[in-house]
Amino acid sequence: MLGAVFGLGVVLAAVSAPSQTAPQAAAPNAGSFQGSVVKGEASPQVLELSLDDAIARGLNTNLGIILNGAEAATARAERLSQLQSLLPSVDLNAKETVSQVDLPAEGLRLPGLPKIIGPFGYTDVRASLSWSLVDLASLRDYMAARHNFAAAQLTAEDARDMVVLTVGNAYLLVLADQAQIASVQAQVDTAKVSLDQAVANHNAGTAPMLDELRARVDYQSLQQQLISAQDALAKDELALARTIGLPLAQQFTLTDQEPYAVFDQLDVQALIAQAHANRKDLAALVEQARAAEEQRKAATADRLPTLKADADYGDIGTTLAHSHGTVDATGTLSVPVFKEFAFRGEAQQAQAQLNIAQAQLSDKNAQVDADVRDALLDIESAQKQVEVARSSVDLAKEALKEAQERYANGVSDNLAVSEAQQSLAQADNQYVVSLYRDNVAKLSLARALGAGQNYKTYLGGK
C-alpha cells in the first residue's frame, strides 16, 4: 500500500496545484515540470544534495521553467510586432539604373528615329515613410499584446512556485522511501532473530514445526517488502534527478532529514487574502481578461475610419553630382463602407473570447480559495495522523517486545510474535506515510499562497 501512495507522490505537484494558462497559447503541460534539461556530466563522486540545492537546480534546469520562459519571450515578440504598427515605417532605397531600349520592339517604327536608344542611366537615392496616424484598432491590438506579455511574465514567475512544489515533493518522497527502507530493514532484522529463535526451539523440541514455518514466512515476506522498497527508492531517485537536470547516472545522497513541526497558522480568511494578493497565476488571468477586453474593443474599432500618411524624398539624376531633390506625399483616409458580416463575425469572436476569459478568472478566484482550504485541511489531518502514528509505533514496539519475551519463556507460541511484527510494520508504514503527507501538504499550502519560494517557513511550521 505504501508503494502505491508513494508512486502517486511523483505527480502530486501536477495534480494538487492549480493549472496554468499562458496568453494566447496553451500552457506547457503540467507534466513538463517532471522533466528538465540535463546539465553537466555524471561524476564518479557521490553528490551531496540538500533540499535547497535541489530546488536551486530545479529553478535553473526544470523543463517547466524553460517552456514558460519561452512563452514569455514569444509574448514579448508579439508585443514588439504590435508596437511597430503604431510607429512610422521608414525605408531607405538607393537605385542605380542602366537601360537600353529597342524602339521597334516597343512598337515605335517612325522615320528618322534610331532603332536603339541608349545605353542611358540614372541614380535615385530615396527615403520613404509610411505612418498610420489614426488607427484605433491597431492601438487596441497593441494594448492587448501588452496585457498578454504581462500575463506571460506572471505565468513564468508562477512556474517557479510549481518547480518548488514539484522538486520539494520529489525530494520528500525519496526521504520517505529511505525511512521506509530503514523501517523494513529493522523489521527484517527482528524477524531474523525470531526465526533463529523458532529454529532453535524446534531443534530443541520445545516448539512445533509450525512456529518455525510461521517465522520463516514472516521473514521472507519482509525481505520481499524490502526489495520492493529499494526498487521504489531507485525509481524515485531517478524522478528527482529528472526534475533538477542531474545526469541519471550521477549518484547522490540527500543531506536533509524529513522535517516535522506543528503548523498553527489556521486563520483561513487571512491566508485566503494573502493568496489572492500573491498568486501569480491569478494575476496572469486578470491580465488575460484585460487583453480580451482590448481585443473586443479592437473589433469595434475596425468600423472606424483610418488615416494614413505616405511620403518619400530623394535625389534623382544622371549622377549624384547632377541630381535634384524630389518629394511625394500622400494622405489617405479610409472609411469602411460595407463589411458588416466581417465586422459582426470579428466582434462575436472577440466577445466569446472575453466571456471565456472572464469565466476562467471567476473560476480561478474560487479555485484559489479552495486550494488554501484544501491545503489547510490536509495539514490538519496529516498532523493528527502523525501524532497517532507515533503513538501506534511506540505501542507496537512494546507489544512486540512483550510477545518475544513470552515466547522466549515458553509462555505462548510465536503467533503473537508474528502478529506483533505485522502490527509494528503497519504502524511504521502509517507513520512514514503521514509524515510525508504532512510535508507535502505544507508545500501545497506555500504554492496555494503564492509563496512557494518561502517553503522553509511552512516546512518549519513557523
What can be said about this structure in brief?
By secondary structure, the protein is α+β, with helices and mostly antiparallel strands.
Question: Can you lay out the helices and strands and say which pair or pack?
Answer:
Layout lengths: L1 H8 L2 H5 L30 E3 L1 H11 L1 H22 L4 E14 L13 E19 L1 H69 L4 H36 L7 E3 L13 H11 L1 H22 L4 E12 L5 E12 L5 H69 L6 H34 L6 H5 L3
Parallel strand pairs: 1-4
Antiparallel strand pairs: 2-3, 3-5, 5-6
List the keywords:
462 residues; alpha+beta; Outer membrane efflux proteins (OEP); 2 domains; two-stranded parallel ribbon; 11 helices; 6 strands; elongated
Number of helices: 11
State the distance separating the first and last CA atoms. Answer: 32 Å
What's the count of strands? 6
Mean pLDDT: 86
What name does CATH use for the topology of the largest domain? Outer membrane efflux proteins (OEP)
Query: Structural class, judged by helices and strands?
Result: alpha+beta
Strand order of the largest sheet: 2-3-5-6
Query: Biggest β-sheet, characterized?
Result: 4 strands, antiparallel
Look at the structure and name the CATH superfamily of the largest domain.
Answer: Outer membrane efflux proteins (OEP)
The CATH architecture name of the largest domain reads: Up-down Bundle
Low-confidence stretches: 1-28
Give the total of domains.
Answer: 2
Q: Helical amount among residues, as a percent range?
A: 55-70%
- Report the C-alpha radius of gyration, rounded: 37 Å
What is the class of the largest domain in the CATH system? Mainly Alpha
Listing every helix as H and every strand as E from the N terminus to the C terminus, the arrangement reads HHEHHEEHHEHHEEHHH
